[in-house]
Amino acid sequence: MGLVKRQRVLYNIGYFRNKEKYKASAKTGQKQWISENQEETFMKRETVIVLDFGGQYNQLIARRVRECNVYCEIYSYKTDLEKIKAMEPKGIIFTGGPNSVYLEDSPSYAKEIYDLGIPVLGICYGSQLMMHQLGGKVCKAPVREYGKIEVTVDQSSALFENVSEKTICWMSHNDYIEQAAPGFKIIAHTPDCPVAAVENVEKKLYATQFHPEVLHTKEGKQMLANFVFNVCGCAGSWKMDSFVEESIKAIREKVGDGKVLCALSGGVDSSVAAVLLSKAVGDQLTCVFVDHGLLRKNEGDEVEAVFGPDGNYNLNFIRVNAQERFYEKLKGVEEPEAKRKIIGEEFIRVFEEEAKKIGAVDFLVQGTIYPDVVESGVGGESTVIKSHHNVGGLPEHVDFKEIIEPLRDLFKDEVRKAGLELGIPDYLVFRQPFPGPGLGIRIIGDVTAEKVQMVQDADAIWREEIAKAGLDKEVNQYFAALTNMRSVGVMGDERTYDYAIALRAVTTTDFMTAESAEIPWDVIGRTTSRIVNEVKHVNRVMYDCTGKPPATIEFE
Ligand code: GLN
């Protein structure tokens, strides 16, 4: 029997890299693969690339493509054409962006990209850029379009197969394509937008003024699937279930009998990373859990119950109670970014001290996931809204050789799937997101032990009432925050001057955009009276009605 060359479609099994390279690559987003051999294997995996021009929805595009079981990564428009070519992508998608293509200094790309024979789909700014570069005309639109708009599409286009002739799409633009580039056929329009989509079948170039990646575009998923399958010819064979198996194998091979250290927070990402490592290398793993005193009520004990010596896993679990140290450092600090930095840095210090007791280790595990990478401005182009302390921040004084980031390429829902594959209980896998700096950023202004307790107690009541009302599955994230506002109240005929708690509850599918949840008034009412009765120094409760944007889900 001869050698059959098999095209293996693999999940990326994380990154292994040495400390110095990590620091360098955290800046450039460059990867270090496990071995040359595997690099080759990975490169053969069919990949679609999102080229980011500063749009808000870069991650959404990548997720939608992955939902088609096609691997997808995001790169900045500053990425060299040679690098893109070397990846041999099956297709390239240009994102939207805030600029105007016809102005000088607006993001652009090497024109050769249109001549590679690789299909390109331009979205919004990306569509305007394609037209502008190829000889069409883009200018300020006489009427800007924003919101859900009915678009008439040409159903004979491969992009619109199985799409209704009149379909609702999400528009968000001030400029428009006045004239399509030569060789392009107009395949969609609206009353105010004569060129809402174009195609050049021969060159496999497509462009849409609207955003198919956003859920408001009713048949957007179908359009992206059409691009990925009809135009790029992808097979769609990239699946989640091989990830766990392949990762365990690769980690085992790489780690050998080395020692591994992991910072476990009890959140979804670090829990999945820790259990994955434990399955791979068992006893060689030690997990350090730092209780920074900014966790939810009783959370430290809950994490210990699951992952500690009495739990189901073999993690060599060490708990460090460092509450006082964090409160001390945070004393009087009011600025959100400063608080984040202090918490991140102190976390590393505590972790280092613990690591020193263990002695030299070979590998350090980080639960970094793909949105962390992109949002920290490494992968894509979008503005950094908040800093993430788990990317780029590394213990300086821990003696280790390499970092393992087994989840670096996964979106949250993919991490959850991996968690279920690993047999982690549902309630842990589907936990609400909880920020690394914890309650530190749910207390507006300076943090004190007393305030932490207020927000913990109020939050516990809110979560209890939401669960009692059976809303915990419908509402995607809900918590209490402590506003820094104090106001006058009256209790038992006496004047009070106490704090206001803000209740937050949002529905969202991706946490990138969110809407304030419509919680029944009686649930809010019950929660309010319980909070003012049971939590000392709170005399007012408010409900946050703001969506994201313009607010963020968290307060700081
Ligand atoms: N800035 C461009 C416009 O206003 C593109 C907008 C976008 O990509 N959402 O038309």
Describe the structure.
The chain is of the alpha/beta class and 556 residues long. It has 3 domains: 47-231, Rossmann fold (3-Layer(aba) Sandwich); 239-376 and 389-430, HUPs (Rossmann fold); 448-543, GMP Synthetase, Chain A, domain 3 (2-Layer Sandwich), CATH 3.30.300. It contains 16 helices and 19 strands. The protein has helices at 19-28, 36-44, 58-67, 81-86, 125-133, 220-231, 241-255, 268-281, 299-307, 323-330, 336-358, 370-375, 412-421, 426-429, 449-468, 521-534; strands spanning 15-18, 47-52, 71-76, 91-94, 120-123, 137-153, 166-179, 185-190, 193-200, 205-208, 260-263, 285-291, 317-321, 363-365, 402-405, 477-491, 494-507, 515-516, 538-543. A 9-stranded mixed β-sheet has the order 3-2-4-5-10-9-8-6-7, with helices on both faces. Strands 1-15-14-11-12-13 form a 6-stranded mixed β-sheet, sandwiched between helices. A hairpin with a 2-residue loop joins strand 16 (477-491) and strand 17 (494-507). Residues 1-14, 26-43 and 382-392 have low confidence and may be disordered. The site of glutamine (GLN) has 12 residues, from strand 7. Glutamine is lined by residues 55, 96-100, 124-125, 172-175.
Characteristic terms for this protein:
556 residues; alpha/beta; Rossmann fold; GMP Synthetase, Chain A, domain 3; 3 domains; 9-stranded mixed beta sheet; 6-stranded mixed beta sheet; 24% strand; disordered N terminus; binds glutamine
